[in-house]
Amino acid sequence: MSGKTIASLITLSMIFITAGLIYLNEHAVIRNFDAYVKDKIEVITSSLSHEINAHLTQGEIEKVIEFTRSYGKFPDVKLIAIFDSAGKLLCLIGDSNEIPNGEIATYKSEMLRYIPEKRIYEKVKPVYSQNGKIGTVFLKIEAVPYLEKIGTTNLFIFTAIAILVALGFVVMLTAFNRRVLKPISNVSGLMQDIGRGIYNVQLEVPRSSEIYEFAENFNQMVKLLDEKERRLERQKSQFKTIYEISRLGLEIKSIDEFFKNVVSLIRNEFKFLNVLYFSVDQSKKLRLTAVSGYLEDYLDETYTLEAGYGIAGSAILLGDVVVINDVSKSPQFIPLYDAPIASEIAIPIRKKGKIVGVLDISSEKTNAFTSEDVRIFKTIAETIAVILEKFDSTMENIKLLFKLETVYKLTRDLVLERDVDKIFENAVKLIYSVLGKKDLVVEIYERVGDLLVMRGIYGTLKESLPYEYAQSINDGLIGKAIRERKLIYIPDLILEPESKRYYKTTASEVVIPLIVKNEIIGAINCESETINAFDNVDLLVLQTIGDTLSIAIQNARMYHQIFESESKYRAIFENSSEAIFRIDESGKFADINPAFEKIFNFNLNDNVNFYDLFVSPDVAEKFKKEIQSKGQVKGFDAQLKNKSGNVLNVQISLKKSSVKSYYDGIIVDLTEYLKILDKVHEADKLRGLAQIAGGMAHEFNNVFAGILGSAQLIKSKVPKDERIHYWADIIERATIRGAELVKKLIGYARGGKFRISNLNLNELIIDALKKIQTAEGISIKTEFNPGIPDIAGDREQILQVLYDIILNGIEAMEKGGTLTIKTEFGWYSQNIVDDPEFKPGEYVKVSISDTGTGMSEETMKRIFEPFFTTKRSLGKSGLGLSMAYGVIKNHNGFIKVSSSFGKGSTFELFLPVERKKEEIIEPAEPAKTKLKILIIDDEEFLRMLLADLLHELGHDVIQAGDGVEGIKIYKEKKDEIDLVILDVIMPLMDGFETFKELKYLNKDVKVIFTSGFSPDKKVQDLMSEEKNVRYVQKPYQVEELEKTIKSLFAEG
Fold first, then answer.
1. In what residue span(s) does the PAS domain sit (predicted)?
2. Residue 396 and residue 389: Cα distance in Å, rounded?
């Protein structure tokens, strides 16, 4: 076979192969396009079905129509028709003549068909819910633009290829077959790849090859096919992304979570470097809400941008899409963390015409965003905007329902309230809590004539109008709302000429007039520091509250009118401190007053019978017979029990009521009165014991004075080695011990304080503890308040009280334990100390607690009695606590004791804060070593003994048996007498009257008062007023007597 023949055959073969490839490619493209169109149809119909199912069943047809119209923007969508279950057309996008007559509603299953003569796809999809078929979707997609373009281009390209190949083979027949055959075989292989849909292939031949131009055209054709294929895939991804975003919009629960899913979806679908979403606030500041990609490890929600800054900020400032295909040439670009960004696009998201966010997408490639990308991203932005508006609408409805439910619950109580003042007070708090806004003040005004008087105010603004602030009914926005009888809302007060602002920071205000039966009764006024602070939901809620509040106020006023007529008859019943009640003939309660409930601790619902309250059934029977026979009982003494079982001592009066078969009665609770009476009797008992003890102490001191003085005289006259000196010393020590016991009796008898000074109780407690040796197993814990003030008192007496009580606590803990001593300072009222004499005021409080055996109730009643003790075996006199009681009382203080048997005891001492200026008198040697002293005392042996003691000290003594005799002697020898020692208690003329006469005779007379009692207030006041007055308590101690005399005659 000749070469020409072979070449011809090869040429024919290539022509047929080329034609076959054209046919194959045409069908492959059609099939590929067919799959793309079907996917698109499925996305649209599924999305529409889901929306119909979600809203059509709820009757929300407008939302279905709104969603359907968003798909009318696609150019290849020729027709969308929505039918209900009866075949009625609900929504139509396109020409109604394109809808087949009467057959759409009959379809029970999906139908997809392609009409070649029209080159149109038709899809019918019935929509079902749980209750059956609810509608039908009919869709038409036009395929003409794609098929015509693809078919013509492919036919032209492959025809050109066939011609070029044929020409090539003709040339090859006349040239060198070897340089043609091999490239042709390569073309055959590449054609097969193209037939399988592989477009990333290239025909490589030398530039000198006879088919080089053919190869270039072939490669250009393959490149065009590859670009079309990738464009179709990208469009498919775009539609899928829109579908997925729409699906996310149906499941949205949180805006932030929604955008996190959106940016992740876009990045995963389009393989961009970064996808970010910024939310935009009122000041146009951008806050990062979601990020996906390279930057998600570097940025978080704290990242912000200002408007105009960066590409995203520029989109906000311009209000349009900003595309930068080479960021290296853009001054707006902000490099972040070495991210390899080459191009960037920012798309604003609008909601109701206002920019609320920016979608920012970046790529590592330059020129990454085409005009097709811009178009699809705008579509995505519009889809997101629809979702946000829908979400806002849903949330607004939820918010409204929640607020209305809250308002209903709260206003229900408001309507039932009968106190007008409380209605106002509760209403302002209700409004404030329901609105839930910061920087808000709520005011409610009541109309009083031509004035509006404030009855309630609540809020957080810095300034505050005074309660009952009044303004004219015609002033400001409130006056405008009242005149127009409607709600007035000013979102920005700067623009309102009638505004009258009390609060300087107020930016927006809403006023709701309160109207009842066409009459203005007041107004609600709400002010905020924020512009546009109140939305439609807030206004609806405020109007609802205003209507309810008007009714509540009117109801309360009507109630008060009725109540006032009844209150004068009910006042005694309700306000009486005595228990008032009504019973029927069987004893069942018909009514009881609050005092009855308080005393007996039960109410009518407890179903208690009156006669069951009696402790004694016999007494109850006696009372019942008396009331039945006489019709009334007055002042009947009985014991009743309350709900807790406590016995109450009461006095009952009962009388037959004017209402048939009922009895009205009153019960006077005498329980507390009897307790107080017991305390008074107890106090009288202690006072009686105190008087006896005081009298005994005085007499004993006189006796001890004689014994002690005699013993001291004997000791001074007898050598120490004499046996009589030894016995005199024993007498002296025994007498001093007896005098100490008498001192305690005087303390109990409250016979006065010896020496007043400013005392710090913390220091005294430490001194008392130093004198005590604790046994093994006993720990002492102190809790001192270092800031307690000083008190005025006798140091030795207070120290002895602390010592006795601490020792008493230690001895109560025979098996070990903890003694806690605590000091406090504060204001204490009468209910703290159970003592009728307690006076409220500032006290220093000392608490001494032990964990010992505790005391029984019977023991606690007697612990302050003199000579009462539970420790006779320890040699205790029983005067410690009684002395403590007397000393604390004498210092105007109080003792409170609490104890539980087996759990320890606590003593609480309350000492008043009284600061006294101390006088410090330094003794000095007297100018005269020998004095003439006048002794005035009715006790002869004490007078003689004192004279002997003074003689021993080197002084001359004159004696007088009473005040009258003493005055007579002093008149005669006043120029000789240097000092008068004067007994306080004497017959005829006591020591004070005698001193008055002496003072009259000589204003500079020097006097030492003496008594078996400790100095009372009268003596103390006299010593503080007179510099020449001193006091010595019997029995006399020589050293103390000598020291006192020296203090009066100190030099200087």
1. 565-628
2. 10
C-alpha 662, offset from chain centre: 51
Higher pLDDT, 309 or 863: 309
**871 pLDDT band (50/70/90 cuts)?**
low
**Is 954 part of a structural domain of the chain?**
yes
Max avg pLDDT among 58-67, 121-130, 200-209 = 121-130
Residue where the block lists tokens 């389009």: 270
Alpha helices per DSSP H over 592-643:
594-600, 617-630
One-character DSSP codes across 677-732: HHHHHHHHHHHHHHHHHHHHHHHHHHHHHHHHHHHHHHHHHS-TTSHHHHHHHHHH
**Around 834, how many Cα atoms within 13 Å sit in the side-chain half-sphere?**
8
Taking the chain, what is the end-to-end CA distance rounded to the nearest angstrom? 166
**Predicted structure pTM score:** 0.33
Q: Which of 743, 740, 801 is nearest to 767 (CA)?
A: 801
Q: Average pLDDT for residues 916-922, to the nearest whole number? A: 47
In 3D space, the residue among 758, 606, 585 whose CA is nearest the CA of residue 662 turns out to be 585
The DSSP annotation for 925-947 comes to -BS-SS-EEEEE-S-HHHHHHHH
- Alpha-carbon gap, residue 862 to 1010, rounded angstroms: 33
Which carries the bigger pLDDT value, residue 562 or residue 350? 350
CATH (domain of 592)? 3.30.450.20
Q: What is the phi/psi pair of residue 6, to 5°?
A: -60, -45
Q: Report the alpha-carbon distance of residue 293 to residue 273 in Å, rounded.
A: 6
Q: Return the closest-CA partner of residue 361 out of 309, 328, 324.
A: 324
Q: What is the pLDDT of residues 763-779, one digit of tens each?
A: 999 888 888 877 778 89
Residues 474-490, mean pLDDT to the nearest whole number: 89
Rounded-to-integer distance, Cα 801 and Cα 861, Å: 19
Provide the residue range defining the domain that includes 517.
417-566
Tell me: do 589 and 502 sit in the same domain.
Answer: no
Q: 114, 146 in Cβ contact below 8 A?
A: no
Q: Is residue 44 part of a domain?
A: no
Question: Which residue matches tokens 């390899």?
Answer: 340
Pairing of strands 662-669, 756-759: unpaired
Check which CATH number belongs to the domain holding 296 and give it: 3.30.450.40
Question: Exposed, middle or buried by CB within 10 Å (0-12, 13-18, 19+), for 624?
Answer: middle
Does one domain contain both 356 and 452? no
- Whether residue 1034 contacts residue 701, with contact meaning beta carbons closer than 8 Å, is answered with yes
Cα 680 to Cα 689: distance, rounded to the nearest angstrom? 14
Name which of 625, 630, 634 is nearest 654 in CA terms: 634
- pLDDT above 90: percentage of residues in the chain: 10
Cα 169 from Cα 174, distance rounded (Å): 9
* Structural contact between residues 524 and 442, judged by C-beta atoms closer than 8 angstroms: yes
Range from 289-303, 530-544, 549-563 carrying the lowest mean pLDDT: 549-563
- Classify residue 785: in a domain, yes or no: yes
Which DSSP state fits 449? T
Number of domains the chain is built from? 5
Based on the domain organization, do 299 and 344 belong to the same domain? yes
Q: How confident is the prediction for the chain on average, in pLDDT?
A: 78
Taking residue 500's Cβ as centre, other Cβ atoms within 10 Å add up to 14
Q: Which of 513, 547, 566 is the last residue of a domain?
A: 566
Sign of CA dihedral 591, 596, 598, 599: negative
Are 820 and 904 a contacting pair, CB within 8 Å? no
| CA atoms in the 13 A half-sphere facing the CB of 1029 | 22
Domain boundary among 628, 652, 669: 669
- 728 Ramachandran zone, left/alpha/beta (phi>0; psi -120 to 50): alpha
pLDDT above 60: residue 876: no
Q: What is the 8-class DSSP label of residue 1050?
A: B
Same-domain pairing of 880 and 952? no
Percent of the chain with pLDDT over 70: 73
Residues 321 and 375 in one domain: yes
Q: Which two structure tokens, joined as six digits, stand for 883?
A: 């002395």
